[in-house]
Queue: 3 jobs
Job 1
Amino acid sequence: MSPVGKIPVYLIHGNQRLLVEEELSKLRAAMAEKTDLEFNLDVFEAGEDPLERALQSADTIPLASDRRYVIVREAQRLTPPELKLLSRYLENPAESSLLVLAAVDLKPGSPLVRTVEKAGRVKEVAKTRSQIPGWVRSRFKKRGIEVSGKALAYLQEALGDDLMAIENAVEKISSYHEGGGEVDLDEVLALVSPSAERSVFEYVDRVALGDTELAVKLMRRLLEQGERPTHLLNALSRRFRELLLYHALSEEGRQEGEIAAYLSMPPNRAWMVGKKLKPQSSRLDDGDFLAALSLLVEAEEKIKTGRWEEEYGLERATLGIAGLVAEKRRRARAPSAR
């Protein structure tokens, strides 16, 4: 049965606002094929507009049409009294109206879902993590642009499963992209930074690149946002262990694919070998890696034994390692003594 058929209520929900909005747009297009929406569509927002107004609109006779449509956005905001009101309406709904509810982040078995299931249809829209790369590729293709696999992997790594953030990134990349070639990883890296919840990766990168000032700023911002110092310290330790292993394996002549496999990197993170581990380790030698790891071990040991506060230990390690890398880079840029 079409969702614009004779059911009295239709609920669209999911944990991705963009997917809910897209489904709602499809539904409106289907509505427009059947009636003049200028006279037979009202849109309300739960939390801003009382549900009673939406139900009164649903009880209104359609104009020059056999169907009237009422959309209530943000339906997850409906209060318990409003849900009771909705339930009473659905006991005797207007036969000539379709009430559409759009909601984000409903809990499993929510009262709203149970209420709608009794009288109408419920549709959950979602994408699994494995479906996201194909979805992103389709967003580029819609704009007439091809995109490389590594660029897709980075977008998902940087922005996670936030499809709205990815859509905004695709729009930004597309607006800057020139020529007929595909969007590659370098182009995406230049335009897309990790989302706030993934700033820990950016912090680790800044330390590994010797960008002391930005590393400290990111560290303090993450701490203000509630990140545990020990979590950031563990992330830093993991990166420098990866860098040391990359350095040793590349010295043996191993290829990037082999190194990614040795480090047990999943396919969607394999791009990090060439784009992060390689440049970040390029100016460091065995002594530098051992010095960095010694700083991390010292911080971890003194925090565990209570000799250092967690934040102090993290800051000591951050400043020490970033400073070590920065000094190494300065020496590499300095002209050779004659």
Job 2
Amino acid sequence: MTTLFLPIHRYAGVVSACIFFLMGLFIPISSFAQVELHILGITQDAGLPQLGCLRSCCQLNGKPRERVPVVSLGITQADSSKAILVEATPDINSQWQRLTELNRGTEPSSVLITHAHMGHYGGLMQLGREARNTNGVTVIGHPSLIDFLQRDQPWKQLITLQNIHSFPLQPLETKEIGQLTIRPISVPHRAEVSATYGYVLEGPFKRALFVPDIDKWSNWNISIDSLLQQVDYAFLDATFFDARELPGRNLREIPHPTVLETMERARDWPISLRQKVYLIHFNHTNPLLQPGSQPEELVTQFGVRIARVGDRMEL
């Protein structure tokens, strides 16, 4: 009887060559390079614990709780010279170090900033000659943010001494860094110093939306519902769980969509859409910072995710 099976070891080299040839017909070589997004921080500008806070959210047995860093992302690529730090926070020291470790020992070459509120750009001072004394780190942001950095001290000194190179990103412009494409989206938010961007971060395979600060979803001229359909991950403003967290404060002066408001908006979304959402930018009072809390259980059962430091996603 004639067999149809051949001794594979005799033809292994030929078979492998054929497989790789066929794969090359359909998969561009560049797609093999990996782009990863890392969550380096999740709290609102002042972090946790906050200065002078003696509440249980900040204190445990009379001592400050372990630090939870301010909202930040890190992006690594196969080309280690293309690592990007998203936001320059008060915790930039540890976040810069962590991203460098994740990037195989090479420091970030770029910093992407959403807006000029303290938790998002203040860490740039650590790049100056009194500290890291970096050489030509590219800082990317809204033109009004870049104009502020170029005009006012002490930020202007960073540019004068070439610690940073400023790159204004126009509203309809995109910027490519390695295999990552950065797409800015104008977001309504308090503009005391600069306008605010959200960003779509697009890798070879997936897209992430980053909107850590917005006044209200209803104030946006873009539908968050439709925008979510165009991305794979969405890191969204979850500063306050509900309006009762800061008694004595006028929340109209610091408007954010509460988590309960966002969940109400998402009530009719399919579970596949809800699961794209990662809540982030938590105020120190937000109970979602307390693992095992009832609000955490409520959010998890609803199908929305809670961002945690150390999470990573492929782009």
Job 3
Amino acid sequence: MNSFWDGRTALVTGAGGFTGRHLATELKRRGAKVRAFIREGSSSDFESAIEIFSGDLLSDDDCHRAMQGMDTIFHVAAVFRRVSTTTEELRRIHVNATEHLLRAAKEAGARRFVHTSTIGVHGGLKVDRADEQGEFSPSDDYQLTKLEGEQLVSRLAPELGVPYSIIRPCAIYGPGDTRFLKFIKPISRGMFVMVGPGEVHGHFVYIDDLVEGFLLAGEKEEACGETFIIGGMRSHSLNEFARTVADICDVRRSGIRVPVWPVYAASVVCEKICKLIGVEPPLHPRRVAFFTKHRSFSIAKARRLLGYEPKTDLETGMRRLILWFRQQGYMHTILVLVGM
């Protein structure tokens, strides 16, 4: 059966990262001619069939050269959050670079520009199963500048006549990424500390499902001018998440709980001290927010307009991730007591 992507050309920015790499690889598997835009000085081990473009997203010239001959653009690049990262650094990539790419897409006559935002633009939710129309409440500079980036796309792309779609991924996980290691490792040792009651929900998306959401947004005419939340089948309480991981690891949950306020206070102090001495904090307010901010979203719009249907439930996805952690030797390294 022929794929929509057979013979098409696709540019993937941020292709050196977890999501971008998976997306570029799947596009190639489906027959697309893929150009992977990676940061200057970055190394890449893509197969030879994927063209590597090493450049600077803040350079008009690099963006125009990267865009030449490209049919579809998947803008996935983002700044990794570090304590030393300034708001202006975030804004340069999330907003300024996005404008460079949009204008280059206009000149190249691209048929679709798929932009990556984040569900973080909604902040902590006051309702269950919020949709794309939910209020914005970014809680840090990363989320704020991602919101500014998607608002730029929704304003500028129509002015330029560039067909676009915006994707807001839920919390991404899967083999090849270590973000959930700080949650999973202590559970596997029976020493996880739950901050607060554990009843807030998180909404997660397995990498294969997210990639499918990107591809559908790049294919479907119904996606033009629309924003989509791409997540797993449903959200899960942190207690349910911890219980699932413990069952997979065949261990008893520790049952240890601590109140939020002293951990949050410690995180604020920790972050300030670490900023002064120039090191990444082992505990910071964003990590504590994982235990306090409710995130449960509706994927009904993506189902209705894109035909999106996640195939990987939480238990299956976590089994694959934990197996990969074990294969990589991550489950035998130093214990971290506080989760995500």
